[in-house]
Amino acid sequence: MEPRGEVFVLGLILSMVVLVVSILISVWARRFTRNLGDYYVAGRSIGAVNNGLAMVSLALSLTTFLGLTALILEGVYIAVAVYASFTAAFIGLMILAAPYLRRHKSFTTMAFISERYGSKTLRYISVVVMLIVSVLYLAGNLKGIGIVFFYLLGVPEVVGIIVGGLVVTLYVTVGGMYGVTYNQTFQTIVLLFCLMFPVAIVLKTLGAAGWYFPPLGYGDMVPLMSQIVPHYFWPMLVHPVTYIAIFLGSFFGIIGLPHFVMRFFTVRDAREARWSTVLCVFLVGLVNTTVFATGFAAVYYMNTQGVDIPTAGYDYMVFILVDALAGQGWLALAVAGSVAAGLSTVAGLLMIMGVGLIHDLYGAIKPDVDDEKKLKLSYATMFIVGILVIIFSLNPPEFILKAIMWAFGIAAAGLGVPIVLGIWWKRTNKYGAGAGMVVGTLIAFLGWIMIDYMGINPVDIPFPFFAKYFYGPLGFIKVTAVAVPISFILTIVVSWLTPPPGPELQRQVDEMHGWTDVDPKRYNSKGLPITIIILSVFVMWFMTTLYDVFPK
Amino acid sequence: MKDYKLEVWITAICFMVVAVTGGFFSSIVVLLNERFFDAVPTPEALIPYYGEGMYVFKQQLSIMGFPLHYFLLIMLSWIGVTIIGAIWCVVMDRIEARQKG
Question: How far apart are the first and last CA of chain B?
Fold first, then answer.
């Protein structure tokens, strides 16, 4: 893919404004940081609206801004299915985990797992899983910032990765969680405006009657689209378990991704945690449906104007479209919005990696270290992690969204399962949680290494019994439909076969649900684990059916 | 115990509904694709991708110009889940108020 051809001064200026304002916000927010709790979780003082807006920009990374449009060009149905899962997953996160985690009073996911199960070993394991998923997630997003710089300046993506990475490392290190939160709120407002308005203008240029409301504004263009691209709305006829795997990855992955969960540790109470999620889901849905409109406009434009974009340029499609149909002013806005989107997600990931290493790893190894020293170490660690991530991201994945999908799958099996069962089933103990975490993570992570990193065809990986069924387009996603169910089954069965957790650990479950008294009968029925085992077996069995029906 | 059961059941029901909109509905459309689509001969240029026959959405099954399955998928996973989430929050607010006495 060729760069735009000339240095885009207006876009560059607006991008720089976003970068400079982000740093200034962090410098301003630093005054609120007086202790470790302020640095890690903003003193647990964030309100529902502020947290909801911050979560939006965390959710709407460059994966959405660039990667989703690219995915729509490959096939709209799978893209819409993926994002339907992702959007609904926030409500899954809310009703299964968010307010309960907030009541638990941990700083991080890793601390929650360690304290709920009374195990330091699980803390170390969860830190390792957190690092794996965070790095995978980060690499995709830093590549996105590189894409923006490449398209604007014609300089290699590496430059964008380094500049964007340094800016975000600087403001995360300086501002801590206060800086990250206020920056994410600012970036959400920026990206909402910078996406909605350029897309509306693009739809207007293409002749859409409802251009002023992009999410539903292109219905009148559908008949012509059906003539020129008759298969546009046809579902991707892959085995249905592919969509169930996307559901499992999204719902339990979002619970397992520590940078999402960490937002709930920053709010004032459980009620604020709940309502911030509702606000977040509404806005995420608004943006996603706008991106669906962008994808529709891109396919429409390419097929009506005879424009041919090579597959390698699909990640650039938003810019190409806005440049061609809306003009330079709107393109500058789109560029600034995408920079904001990339920064916010990277900031959240850097934050959780730094906190995880100091609070959950170093703090567990040396529990006697005082908070002041931990705070100083946090500043240094955050900076070092940022630099290491930049170096790692210099060899980014080919397509942004694929790396993110793997991150969700690993997080779901490795962290999502022990969190959900730890909240909803008292009988879950450290042995069960450990078995589920280790085996679930290994299945998903080894799947990534063999399929994505080593490039082995999914059906050829040495995976007993199931590899044969990882066929068809997006066949790799089915690894999640094995990893998550096995993690659930192992956690439950091993917990049953080993001694129950002590009364103090079981009490935490009642407290997380807001009860002031303890009742052994609450959250202790056999119905939930049995239902989960049946559903888990069903998902894996379902994968082995309909073998000759769907394309290989 | 009454509030405990209410919490568990409302959570289970909301989760099931959200799971349908967030994943199982996509599977259902694939499994029942002939209910949503008409079989047509594939245009020559697309035969390498789709074979001799393919499907287009039934024109009579559309809302605001969009194919029914597409409209349902985007609206259920956006407005639908937002409403479900808000309902769950209201119920949990009430339970929490009773827990605090």
Answer: 15
| B27 inside 8 A of chain A by CB | yes
- Pairwise CA distance, residues A259 & A109, whole Å: 9
Rounded Cα distance, B101 and B95, in Å:
10
Virtual CA dihedral for A281, A282, A285, A287, nearest 10 degrees?
-110
Locate all alpha helices (DSSP H) within A207-327, ordered by sequence: 222-228, 241-256, 258-265, 270-305, 317-325
ipTM of this complex prediction, to 2 decimal places:
0.91
CATH assignment, A9-396: 1.20.1730.10
Strand-pairing partners, residue B67, are B62
* Residue B63, phi then psi, degrees to nearest 5: -130, 125
Contact A281 B82 (CB under 8 A): yes
Runs of H (alpha helix) within A207-221: none
Q: What is the pLDDT along chain A (552 residues), one digit of tens a residue?
A: 566 666 678 888 888 888 888 888 988 988 888 888 888 888 899 999 999 999 998 888 777 777 777 778 777 788 888 888 989 999 999 999 999 999 997 888 999 999 999 999 999 999 999 999 988 887 767 777 777 777 766 777 788 788 878 888 887 888 788 988 998 898 888 888 888 899 999 999 999 999 999 999 999 999 898 888 877 887 777 888 998 999 999 999 999 998 889 899 899 999 999 999 999 999 999 998 998 899 899 999 988 888 887 777 777 788 888 888 988 888 888 888 887 777 777 888 888 888 888 888 888 888 888 878 887 888 788 888 888 878 877 776 665 677 888 999 999 999 999 999 999 999 999 999 999 999 999 999 999 999 988 889 999 998 888 889 998 878 899 999 999 999 999 999 999 999 999 999 999 999 999 998 999 999 999 999 999 999 999 999 999 998 877 777
Mutation target vs B (from A91, A524, A526; most B CBs, 10 A cutoff): A91
Residue ranges covered by each domain of chain B: 2-99
Q: Let me know: does A345 contact A119? Beta carbons within 8 Å.
A: no
What's the token pair of residue A214? 């992009």
Task: Name the residue among A84, A270, A282 with its Cβ closest to that of B73.
Answer: A84
At A147, list the tokens: 């894409």
